[in-house]
Design goal:
single chain, about 325 residues, mainly alpha, two-stranded antiparallel ribbon, about 0% strand
Length: about 325
């Protein structure tokens, strides 16, 4: 049982550097409001970049992508591309086995192509929906027939009310990203602030807040790793592998469910079973495409919209399993196997 806690601790430490650095960067961007950088992070090349970093054997990138998505710094297509491309422990295990070397190329190529395909489809769909939303709003404004005097009076009243409301809120709390940073505006005097006040403000903005946020997420990741580590410890990786391997054509369905487990144990089980021939290519692709490491756990915790979280996970599972079923229905000779 001690090994479970040790493995959970090690897996958590692997994510820590990526998460800490990204939180510092996010904090700076949010305060500096660097519009160009934010546009680049959600621009047309974003799914391509997401696929490239996701294929690196490290689940830290899925956590970072999740953090960015929950803050709406990247688009859904970019997140899906990172999730699908994420390989976690798959590459090292395949490369460590001679049999794995001959099987690795089809899996990696399929994951890359599929990540780009799904990423850009989701990216384009989101842009189209945003465009339609803007068009609908413009049409509604054009068709509206409101008395000009009444409209101006209402607008003036709403503006005054909104101004008073926002002013009162600013005195109490500074809303910042997904955080609520308590800042006493009475202690902050802008340009007339003392050196001590300025230093404290800088420390809170760029050091304290990202450290606290990182600590909170890392603790949550550790707890999740421990829980799933204990589950795997009592059930056994061998039993899971044998169960998946006995399902035949429907391997992608169960392999996809295993891939949803927010722990590197999922990719270990799927990859080892695939390398020794106990899992078909379709099953391996389904499980490894849907697997996003600890990313799902962070998404469930950080994403404010439960509906959106469920949608992301459902899309990942459905498209990955569908791809696995299609691959199993095709002659394996096409993939050089």
């Amino acid at each position: 049982m001690g090994e479970v806690f040790l493995d959970a601790f090690i897996d958590t430490l692997k994510v820590l550097p990526f998460l800490l650095i990204m939180n510092f960067i996010i904090e700076i961007l949010e305060y500096k409001s660097n519009v160009r950088v934010q546009k680049a992070m959600s621009g047309g090349f974003a799914p391509l970049i997401g696929t490239a970093v996701g294929i690196v054997p490290q689940c830290g990138f899925s956590v970072v992508a999740t953090e960015l998505y929950t803050k709406r710094k990247i688009a859904l297509g970019t997140l899906l591309a990172v999730y699908i491309a994420t390989s976690d422990e798959a590459l090292p295990i395949m490369l460590s086995s001679y049999a794995g070397v001959t099987k690795i190329l089809p899996v990696i190529i399929i994951k890359i192509i599929f990540a780009l395909l799904v990423g850009y489809i989701a990216f384009a769909a989101q842009k189209l929906m945003q465009k339609r939303s803007v068009t609908a709003a413009e049409n509604a404004a054009t068709d509206a027939h409101i008395d000009e005097h009444a409209h101006e009076h209402e607008h003036s009243h709403d503006h005054e009310h909104e101004h008073e409301h926002n002013h009162d809120e600013e005195k109490a709390v500074h809303i910042h990203g997904c955080h609520h940073h308590n800042i006493d505006e009475d202690e902050w005097d802008g340009e007339n602030a003392t050196k001590k006040q300025k230093a404290k403000r800088v420390f809170d903005m760029y050091i304290k807040h990202p450290l606290l946020h990182t600590a909170t997420v890392i603790f949550f990741i550790f707890i999740v790793n421990v829980i799933f580590g204990i589950a795997v410890y009592y059930v056994g990786e061998k039993r899971i592998a044998e169960f998946i391997g006995s399902t035949g054509y429907f391997q992608p369905v169960l392999a996809g469910l295993v891939g949803l487990i927010p722990n590197c144990a999922a990719s270990v089980v799927i990859t080892e079973l695939y390398v020794v021939g106990g899992l078909s290519l379709g099953g391996a692709v389904a499980g490894l495409c849907v697997g996003a490491g600890i990313g799902y756990a962070v998404l469930a915790k950080q994403n404010k919209s439960v509906k959106n979280t469920v949608l992301v996970i459902a899309v990942m599972y459905v498209v990955s399993v569908a791809l696995g079923m299609i691959i199993n229905a095709m002659p394996q000779s096409i993939f050089g196997l």
